[in-house]
Amino acid sequence: MRIWGPLVAICLGTFMLLIDVTIVLVALPSMSRSLGASLSQLQWAADGYALAVAAALLGAGMLADLHGRRRMYAGGLVVFALASVACALSPGMGWLIVARIVQGLGAAAMFTTTLSLIGTLYSGRRLAPAFGAWAAVAASASALAPVLGGLLIQALDWRWIFYVNVPLTVLALALTFRHIPRSTPRRDASRRLDVPGLVLFALGAGGFVYAVTEAHAQGWTSPHTLVPLGVAVLALAVFVPVQRRGRHPLLDLTLFRRPAFTAAMLTIAIGEGAVYGILPYTSLWLQSVQHLSPIGSGLVLIPHAVAAGLVAVASGRLMPKPSPRLGATLGLVLSGLGVGAEGFLTPASGWPALIGGLILSGIGMGLVFQVAASLALGSVPAERAGMASGTYSTCEQLGYALGVAVFGTLAVSATTGSLHGKVADASGTAQTLTGGGADTLVTHAPAGQRPGLEHTLHAAFAAGHNTLALTAGALALLGAALVRYLTRTRRTAPGPDTASAPPEEALAG
User: Fold this and answer.
1) Better pLDDT: 134 or 102
2) Is 192 helix (H, G, I), strand (E, B) or coil?
3) Model-level pTM?
């Protein structure tokens, strides 16, 4: 267990924190019935966690450098478990959303250390398989979460998707203290946590996601949208010069001068946002329109999980030094084609219509996870591994959070357009429908109108989902083109500077 023990401890924590990104997807209808929730609240139950992870990751990475990576990882596990219990005990949606945000802070402390721990504990021939195993866990966790969540919800209750984290955390802590050695923190008296940078980044990311999430309910011209959007823009505008001038910045912006590093960040952010950003609405379609059970809804996603996991492991073995042009570009192309193939539903479509696209996007995301993670660390000096790991994880979670928020607003807008002229209150009906309330709308209609209304609602939901899938596919393909551009090879003859430059510096950008 000297070789596998640390990796099992790291991967168990990674699996838990990534499972909790998407495990709530199959629970959304149950949460809505149990606690009473609007689409915005359901979005925040899914998005608040990912946003907290993204906002806190860079700060957690700096704290890990200052106080030790094992200590930060173990502390994150404890916070994650306690917040999971709070989620399970939630009496209402407000409590649940707050508990999910705290849970995300614990997950950030765990997530920011995973890649840097692997990079520290493994080297040589063992490094690529270790990355492959981690990438397989990361790739499969997001897609397996709905299956595991469905099992727990159907057998017990939606609250058990959070209770189950407690025994897993105890096991992860035991493995951590037994197999992961203490790391020596940096003894630099002048180095402090970049509090201004942390606050500005959290305000920028949080304000933007909040504004987009509320836009479909409040409107883009409402103060509820414009004020947080203005705060976000101002915070991010101030964040950049603060980081440039800081002695120990939260984020070293000079890393983005390396084309391979920038390509890795774009690859994971766009892949996460495009492929997993629409999953909440796919899950709602499967359960509220197709009337699948939570476990049935989760099983539909199994092909994606299997494809992603197998490809991540295989690419880790076959591409120990992944090509940014081949791996990242191909991964995004396949992801885009796969998710786009899910955009041809009709009112009569059943769940099999999704399978081909799910498999193809799984193959693409398996490449994305493995290649982007390896590039993120391989394109920077070893002493910057902690910051590179934190930046990678931040882009991953921020991509997901923004994807859920943007596609939520697009879902309501597209569904409202489909219902316009067909129902009395197109906007209100769209809000209820996209929140998983198809059966509620049909039940409250006069008996004679129910068959026609049900067909209309199914058609509107399918049209809305198609808009999301095709938009996500186009986004991924656009991202592939951008990554290909960033990773193009210089055609000029190498001079004395380029001859000695590391591989990532020989890429134009």
Assistant:
1) 102
2) coil
3) 0.74
